[in-house]
Design a protein that fits this description.
The chain is an alpha/beta fold. It contains 9 helices and 8 strands. It has a 5-stranded parallel β-sheet, with helices on both faces. It has a 3-stranded antiparallel β-sheet with strand order 5-4-8, with no helix packed on it. The C terminus is likely disordered. The chain binds iron/sulfur cluster.
Length: 308
């Protein structure tokens, strides 16, 4: 195989991709040529703060440029009758009382598309210029050993996926591949224990624990999600403006109840099980999810687990 022209990090800004950024900057992994963060415009303030700090304290000093790319604002677009809406995975109560779900197009539209666009630009072949055969960027994706099933190739010849965490040796058991706990340990040891979960404020794939945290710790963002939940009850604005209203009602919470009335205080068996097994002997907030611990990852969206 030919050598990559560029080495790029797909920076979701969660635990695994932040670990990769630190490892590269420290020289423990090869030097990156850039990191790409796809911004949906509706991330929690903590994620933007984390990203700013990562850029300032790690990426810039190491000479790794951060590219913040976007394809719009997912929240505004959903409520704008003049804008085509790439659907979020909303929970639907059908007119006959049955349950449904809208297709998830948002990850592709708001994350993958702008990342691909940026990668092509960096390679020197922006759309529609064809990228010459054999020219490609190696794209690092933060997949840890415990989620190896999500390590899939992008299927794009100019952007080949690579999973460096899987090639590292786990110091605890000598096995090949770092786990998410290895990443957490590494982040704590380097002063990055506050790495947040990256996902849209109102992502329907949030677990109950994440909704609770939003309500209890970020009342402004919670109010924003509650308002959005109300506003999309009849579907997205564009569909209604075009005379194609949603048949049924849309909700952000899987109970298909208004968010501020949804049963988010119910602690699931899965959450209790994770309280028992926390490797640090303490209750780690990120582990108490009924959903996914890391949020929306562009190339291997883990968020699907919660809706399964
Ligand atoms: S976080 Fe949720 S709503 Fe946002 S892009 Fe990912 S799947 Fe879609």
């Amino acid at each position: 195989m030919t050598q990559p022209a560029l080495r790029l990090l797909s920076l979701g800004a969660g635990v695994q991709s932040t670990t990769l950024a630190l490892l590269s900057a420290a020289g423990d992994l090869p030097k990156l040529d850039g990191a790409i963060f796809a911004d949906t415009g509706w991330e929690p303030a903590a994620v933007y703060r984390h990203l700013d700090r990562l850029e300032r304290e790690i990426l810039q000093p190491a000479g790794i440029r951060l590219y913040r790319v976007a394809a719009g604002n997912i929240r505004d677009d959903a409520l704008d009758p003049a804008h085509r809406f790439a659907s979020m995975p909303l929970f639907i109560r059908n007119p006959d009382g049955g349950d449904g779900m809208t297709r998830r197009q948002c990850t592709s539209e708001y994350k993958l598309k702008p990342i691909k666009r940026q990668a092509r630009q960096l390679l020197g072949y922006p759309h529609p210029k064809p990228v010459p055969r054999g020219l490609y960027a190696e794209q690092w994706i933060g997949i840890s050993r415990d989620e190896i099933g999500r390590a899939k190739d992008s299927g794009i010849q100019y952007l080949r996926s690579s999973f460096p965490l899987l090639d590292l040796t786990d110091a605890a058991d000598g096995r090949e591949g770092w786990t998410r706990d290895d990443c957490l340990r590494y982040l704590r040891a380097n002063g990055w224990e506050t790495t947040p979960k990256s996902a849209c404020i109102g992502c329907p794939f949030h677990g109950n624990a994440q909704w609770r945290r939003l309500r209890d710790e970020q009342p402004g963002e919670w109010a924003d999600a509650v308002e959005f939940d109300r506003a999309i009850r009849a579907g997205n604005a564009r569909g209604n403006a075009l005379g194609k209203p949603l048949l049924g009602e849309a909700y952000l919470h899987r109970s298909r109840k208004p968010l501020d009335q949804a049963p988010i205080d119910r602690v699931t068996a899965h959450e209790w099980a994770q309280r028992q097994t926390d490797v640090f002997g303490q209750v780690a907030d990120a582990e108490l999810e009924d959903g996914d611990p890391d949020g929306c990852s562009p190339w291997s969206c883990r968020s699907g687990r919660a809706a399964a």
